[in-house]
Amino acid sequence: MGATLTGEIMYPLRTALSIIIALTLALSNVSISVAERAQPSLTRPISIDLKGERFENFLRIIAETSNMNVIRMEEISFPLTVRLIDTPIEKALDAVLSQYELVKRVDGNVIQVYRKSNPALKRPQTTRAYEGRLISLDLQDTHLDNAVRIVEEVAGKAVLGKELLPTRATVTVRLIDVPWDQVLAILLEQNDLQATIDTHTIQIKTAM
Questions:
Q1: pLDDT of the residue at 10
Q2: Nearest to residue 82, comparing CAs of 103, 54, 60?
């Protein structure tokens, strides 16, 4: 078995009714919306027959079939050969991840994929419920500071500590129906950062 990973966020290709509330931003290759979609599920049966396919394509199948977002939290790349018949989605995903020393975290409708060696896994997973407005966004090679600016606009809160953002970091991400505060947490975690949020501000800081 073998497959390919880049560090972008995968997204379900199927949405039920899509109600788009546009947020216009003067940023190239950026769109953002609020969307309605089918109920996410990891228990549906799935059949997969891949030979030398990119791992990215496998994750796209998982995302589309489960109606969940799948994000690779770091660069992972290998060819994948796998054949599964009528296997629950989560079991199929776990089988592939375990073979390649990868693990997942599931939070709401987002699946985050890591190498087992990723230092972020040593940090406790947040137990706080995300309460931000649900957004969908599509960013292509967008500077991280611009991605954070999108969240700042949606949240209506001032972001402090932007000087900690890596100046050359870029983001390629597609997400559907995810709370803005969860989107921010994902973007920051990929860069060893985190945030505290209060009524009026978002404070970026180095991950502990």
A1: 52
A2: 54
